[in-house]
């Protein structure tokens, strides 16, 4: 029998998701009503996203005192029969996703203004994908994990192919669907085997059952983990599940590529932490039974860093270069899973925040280069620093931060991540840190190529740079301010990430 009170409590804990769902419906209706001028649709999407962001920020502020329900018990909650966790960890990622969506909407508005169709659908799909990512962050059982990941993925497939008359966009969408379907099939098969072994969908219960039955053969655990990691690896673009990433990033509309590079990737990591903390961290059977999943994560991290950084060295197209760059950063983030402790997870979350800031800033400039200058390649940037010094100066800042050089937020992100690993001790971990530093040195080459093309070559003709819209400048300066501020004063962000990890429902 349906417990109405329980459902209402669950919905009240998920107020940001409920609000965003309402905004999606309003955007769809507004698309129908605004037949000629679609600008109000984008404005409505932005205001609605900021409203949902305010609700998520309020939830963070009052936790655990209020939680929207006067009679709610203090501490982490599990809504809808334990399917969705409601804790500071989930709220942290909701704020991150909504912030990224707001920036993506601002960057999308001038691009879709010239489209003859699909403008309102673009905003509705971005918001729907964000809703799926928010559910991924709180998903607490296998079925909810799969459904939320598919929700985010299906909307992503459509977003990639929004330019229907563009062959590259259609090709990107098709490749995304094919790779996504294969990875999704393997993942759900692994989930079904895990359910068959344990008899439960809840990740915490699965971990306890595995811990109580060490007789489970290691081969079964290896098979299940390989299948499940195919799904997670596809979502975070980790090698060898990365093959879709460069083609999709190149073919999708550039604002969509910017959103893909930060949103779904962060959502994949958020769900992966919750899955591993429940299923394997509480299970003594995994390492003692002969299967060390942390070693597997180390191999994936090194392979992903190698593919990302070496793949980016030979790229001319800016979006493909940034695609391989995002693969490399996924490798750095995977290093945190080799020492799976609260401090390391907090360091990974800090790195995700600064990665979102600096990567969105870099992509904002890539969008402007494409829209205002018609530039899509590294060679096309030659001499641009003399025509648009402020724009190229900001691009230099983001490239320095993506490399991990001081005094930027990217440097702090890598410093904290590698520092926590070194603090854990051990020759194996120290070796991984050295490998990560060496790959960071490699990344300096392809990021410096962009900066060098902009400033080290004078243009043959001095042409005035086109004026940029005010919203674009606001986004750029906000991202630049965040990159510098968190590079100089990271203490507040570090405290926030530590508090978020303390709030995770399945204690690490």
- Total beta strands: 2
* Percent strand: under 5%
Low-confidence spans = 65-70, 282-290
Mean pLDDT: 84
Task: Work out the helicity level.
Answer: over 70%
Looking across the biggest beta sheet, what order are the strands in? 1-2
Give a brief description.
The chain has helices at residues 4-13, 15-33, 39-62, 88-112, 119-138, 142-160, 167-198, 203-212, 218-236, 244-251, 254-279, 285-288, 293-312, 318-334, 342-373, 384-387, 389-403, 409-424, 427-455, 470-488, 491-502, and strands spanning 77-79, 84-86. The chain has a domain at 292-508.
Detailed description of the structure:
By secondary structure, this protein is mainly α. Helices cover 75% and strands 1% of the residues. It has helices at residues 4-13, 15-33, 39-62, 88-112, 119-138, 142-160, 167-198, 203-212, 218-236, 244-251, 254-279, 285-288, 293-312, 318-334, 342-373, 384-387, 389-403, 409-424, 427-455, 470-488, 491-502, and strands spanning 77-79, 84-86. A two-stranded antiparallel ribbon has the order 1-2. Helix 13 packs parallel to helix 19. The radius of gyration is 22 Å and the shape is globular.
Salient structural properties:
508 residues; mainly alpha; two-stranded antiparallel sheet; 21 helices; 75% helix; globular
Question: What's the SSE blueprint?
Answer:
Layout: H1 4-13, H2 15-33, H3 39-62, E1 77-79, E2 84-86, H4 88-112, H5 119-138, H6 142-160, H7 167-198, H8 203-212, H9 218-236, H10 244-251, H11 254-279, H12 285-288, H13 293-312, H14 318-334, H15 342-373, H16 384-387, H17 389-403, H18 409-424, H19 427-455, H20 470-488, H21 491-502
Helix pairs in contact: 2-3, 2-5, 3-4, 3-5, 4-5, 4-11, 4-15, 4-21, 5-6, 5-11, 6-7, 6-11, 7-9, 7-10, 8-11, 9-11, 10-11, 10-14, 11-14, 11-15, 13-14, 13-19, 14-15, 14-19, 15-17, 15-18, 15-20, 15-21, 17-19, 17-20, 18-19, 18-20
């Amino acid at each position: 029998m349906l417990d109405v009170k329980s459902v209402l409590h669950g919905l009240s804990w998920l107020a940001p998701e409920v609000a965003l769902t309402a905004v999606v419906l309003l955007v769809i209706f507004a698309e129908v009503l605004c037949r000629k001028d679609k600008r109000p649709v984008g404005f409505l999407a932005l205001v609605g996203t900021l409203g949902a962001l305010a609700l998520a920020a309020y939830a963070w502020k009052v936790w655990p005192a209020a939680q929207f329900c006067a009679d709610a018990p203090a501490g982490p909650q599990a809504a809808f029969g334990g399917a969705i966790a409601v804790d500071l960890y989930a709220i942290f990622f909701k704020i991150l996703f909504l912030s990224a969506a707001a920036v993506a909407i601002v960057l999308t508005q001038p691009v879709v203004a010239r489209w003859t169709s699909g403008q309102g659908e673009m905003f509705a799909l971005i918001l729907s994908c964000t809703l799926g990512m928010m559910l991924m962050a709180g998903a607490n059982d296998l079925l909810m994990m799969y459904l939320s990941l598919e929700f985010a993925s299906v909307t992503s497939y459509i977003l990639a192919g929004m330019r229907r008359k563009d062959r590259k966009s259609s090709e990107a969408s098709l490749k995304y669907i094919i790779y996504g379907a294969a990875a999704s099939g393997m993942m759900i098969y692994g989930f079904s085997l895990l359910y068959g072994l344990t008899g439960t969908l809840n990740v915490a219960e699965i971990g306890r059952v595995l811990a109580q039955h060490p007789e489970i053969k290691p081969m079964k655990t290896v098979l299940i983990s390989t299948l499940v990691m195919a799904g997670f690896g596809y979502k975070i673009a980790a090698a060898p599940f990365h093959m879709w990433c460069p083609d999709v990033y190149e073919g999708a509309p550039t604002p969509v590529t910017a959103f893909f590079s930060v949103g779904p990737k962060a959502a994949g990591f958020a769900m992966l932490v919750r899955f591993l903390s429940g299923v394997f961290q509480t299970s003594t059977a995994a390492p003692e039974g002969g299967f060390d999943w942390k070693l597997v994560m180390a191999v994936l991290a090194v392979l992903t860093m190698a593919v990302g950084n070496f793949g980016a060295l030979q790229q001319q197209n800016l979006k493909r270069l940034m695609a391989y760059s995002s693969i490399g950063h996924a490798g750095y983030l995977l290093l945190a899973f080799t020492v799976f402790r609260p401090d390391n997870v907090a360091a990974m979350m800090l790195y995700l925040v600064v990665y979102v800031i600096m990567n969105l800033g870099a992509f904002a400039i890539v969008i402007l280069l494409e829209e205002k200058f018609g530039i899509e390649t590294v060679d096309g940037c030659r001499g641009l620093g003399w025509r648009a010094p402020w724009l190229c100066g900001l691009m230099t800042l983001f490239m320095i931060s993506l490399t991990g050089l001081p005094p930027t937020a990217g440097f702090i992100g890598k410093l904290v991540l590698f520092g926590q690993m070194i603090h854990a001790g051990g020759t194996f971990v120290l070796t991984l840190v050295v490998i990560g530093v060496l790959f960071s040195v490699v990344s300096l080459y392809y990021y410096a190529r962009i900066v060098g093309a902009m400033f080290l070559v004078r243009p043959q003709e001095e042409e005035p740079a086109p004026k940029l819209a005010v919203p674009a400048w606001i986004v750029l300066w906000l991202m630049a301010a965040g990159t510098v501020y968190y590079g100089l004063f990271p203490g507040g962000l570090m405290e926030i990430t530590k508090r978020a990890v303390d709030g995770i429902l399945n204690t690490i």
